[in-house]
C-alpha cells in the first residue's frame, strides 16, 4: 500500500509574494528603528550635563511676576467694563436699534427683544 503525501494547504503558488513582502516590511521597520534611535541619541547629546537650579528659580520668579501683573491689570479691566456698562449709550446706537425695531413689526415680543 503506497501512501502519497497530499497537499492540504491549498495552492501555494498564489501566496508567492507573502515571503518577500514580509521581509521588506521587517527591513523597513528595522531601518525606521535605527533612524529613531540615532535621532534620540543626537537630542540627548544636546542636553546639558546638569540643569542649573538658578535658571529654574529665575524662571519660576518671572512666571510669578507675570501672574501678579496679569491679576493686577485684570482687576482694573473689570472696573472699566462695569463703568462702560453703566454709562449712557450713544444716540447713534439707539437710532440703529430703533430702526431695526421698526423694520421687524411682526409682533410686539420680537421688537421688544430687538430693542434690548
UniProtKB/TrEMBL annotation:
Question: Low complexity bias located where?
Answer: 90-100
Transmembrane region positions? 17-37
Q: Which UniProt keywords apply?
A: Membrane, Transmembrane, Transmembrane helix
**Transmembrane helix in keyword set:** yes
Map out region (Disordered) in residue numbers.
71-116
- Tell me the protein's name: Secreted protein
Q: Which organism is it from?
A: Actinoplanes ianthinogenes
